[in-house]
Target: ADP-heptose synthase
Amino acid sequence: MVKKSRLLEILESFKSIKIAVIGDMMLDDYIIGSVDRISPEAPVPVVNVVEERFVLGGAANVVNNLSTLGAQTFSFGVIGDDPNGDRLTNEFAKNSINVDGIVRAEDRPTIVKRRIIAHNQQLLRLDWENKRDISPELESKLLRNLRNCIDDIDAIILSDYDKGVLTPLVAKEIIKLANEHGKIVTVDPKPKNAGNYVGATSMTPNRKEAMECIGLDRIEDVEKLGRELKEKLNLTNLLLTRSEEGMSLFEEETVTIPTFAKEVYDVTGAGDTVISVFTLAAAAGATWHEAAKIANTAAGVVVGRIGTSTVTKEEIVAFYDELYHEWN
Ligand SMILES: Nc1ncnc2c1ncn2[C@@H]1O[C@H](COP(=O)(O)OP(=O)(O)OP(=O)(O)O)[C@@H](O)[C@H]1O
Ligand SMILES: [Mg+2]
Model:
């Protein structure tokens, strides 16, 4: 692992880094209550609602991760012109996140995943979404917004949940723009869109996604899988995440970084934390190998906790101290 002084130096630089996130911004809506009877109207439980909680989701969770780590963020996405859009904007504002690059569309709903939970059990999930590609007008608007601030940012993250924002045109134009301006551009991909990401700096698929990106349906040797995907998409490097097996970074050489989570409670959002920390650390001057190790430590913090998917610099340092006291 990196030396403590080096880790602190990298984390300290986070606050001067500016990162743009483009992708499918979502709102997670948790309705939490208890059940003590079945409805007289239909054979369904009646939930007595105790609490409703809104959480930034999808690409907005990547933004939240970056912002929690002290980076300056620029968010680009499309939300609806509806009350859920107000709620999403409100959650961004609560976290002091700039939303100038978010466009509100009249013909699409804000993406919401509403979960109804009672006694720690999910009873139902309700989704609002329209997955069709955004219109050419919205594509131009998003690209224009990004072009306007390209000189101000250090890196770009494409967070693809396949909900229509990262159309082939948007993805390809952004990668072109990033390369023209010498900016890092990393992608959390949806495999069916892999072809849009040729020439990106890096990608952070999990193993299954990596297989699907190159059209494989059976388990392949990780080394072969990573090499093939990196080459196929002409990436500078590739970070393949492997759940409990940690991650493998493919550069000239391949390095495997084992997981450090001691107890695993909740793996949701670990992928968002990985791409956020990996990109932020690299933009802050870390080598890709250092960035991957720090991202892996951060993911270890997130999977060890229930219900939150962001991590602070202090939590990364505390977990590092627990794991590597002999390095201090
Ligand atoms: N069961 C686990 N035990 C320990 N660490 C884990 C576990 N699952 C995930 N991690 C950590 O989180 C990282 C990302 O996890 P994973 O490979 O599952 O990504 P993902 O499938 O993209 O996640 P997501 O569901 O958030 O999209 C791993 O590289 C590892 O550091
Ligand atoms: Mg993922």
